[in-house]
Amino acid sequence: MIKRIILATMIFTFCLPIVSNAQDIQFFNEPPFEHYKVSRGDSFWFIAKRYGLDYRELMRLNPEIEPRNMHVGEVIRLKEAAEHSSTFEDQVVTLVNQQRRKNGLSPLTHRADLKNVAHKKAEDMIKSNYFSHNSPNYGSPFDMLRTYGISYQTAGENIAKGQSSPEAVMNSWMNSPGHRQNILNGQYDAIGVGFYHGAWVQMFIKSR
C-alpha cells in the first residue's frame, strides 16, 4: 500500500502601497551583497542602475530569468561568485541531512532523477501560477513521479513559496509539524529538491 503524505506551506508577505521619491532609493557603486530579491516593478535595467552594474552583465548572470516577466520574490545573482539556484537545492539537502542526523536517522540520497522532477514541479508552479500539490499539467506528485518513470514504495512532498534562501525555507518547514514529519520520516531513503523563481519543492521516496 502506498502511503501518501502531502503537506504544504506558504509564506505570505503583505505590503501596503507607498509613494517614494527617487532620492529615497539608495544607489551603490557596486553590489554590497551577492543576491537580490525582486520587488514589484523591478527590471534588470533598474536593478543594474541601483547597484552599479551593466544590465547586460546582470542578464548574463541570470540566464534563466525572463527579463519581461520577472517574478516578485525571485532571487537573482548580482555577482559572478554568487551561488546558482542548483547550489541552493544542494544546500537544502545538506540541511535536511543535518536534521536527520540530529535525530538519529540515515541521510537521504539526492537522486538526479528525483531532483529533475522536483525542479519541474517548482517551475510548473511559477509558470502556471498555482500553489498546490496537484498540478494542472502533471496531476498529483505521485502521478508526476510515475510519468517520469520513478518507482517507489512510499512518497511525500513538501512545497513552499517566497523564501529567499535554503535556511529560510528549511526554517519554515521545520517549524511546521507536518513538514517536519516528512523531513524526519525514517522510511525515506532519497530526496529531490527543486527551486525556481522563489518556489521550493522537496520530493521524498522510499525506493523499491
Question: Overview of this structure, please?
Answer:
The chain has 208 residues and is of the alpha/beta class. It has seven helices and seven strands. The chain has helices at 44-50, 55-61, 85-102, 112-127, 141-147, 166-174, 177-183, and strands at 3-8, 35-37, 75-77, 109-110, 154-161, 190-196, 199-206. A five-stranded mixed sheet has the order 1-5-7-6-4. It has a two-stranded antiparallel ribbon with strand order 2-3. α3 runs parallel beside α6. The two termini are 13 Å apart. Mean pLDDT is 85; it is low at 7-23.
Strand count, sense and barrel status of the largest sheet are:
5 strands, mixed
Helix content: 25-40%
- Flag low-confidence runs: 7-23
Compressed to H and E, one letter per element, the order equals EEHHEHEHHEHHEE
> What is the CA-CA span between the terminal residues?
13 Å
Shape: globular
Q: What is the residue-mean pLDDT, rounded to a whole number? A: 85
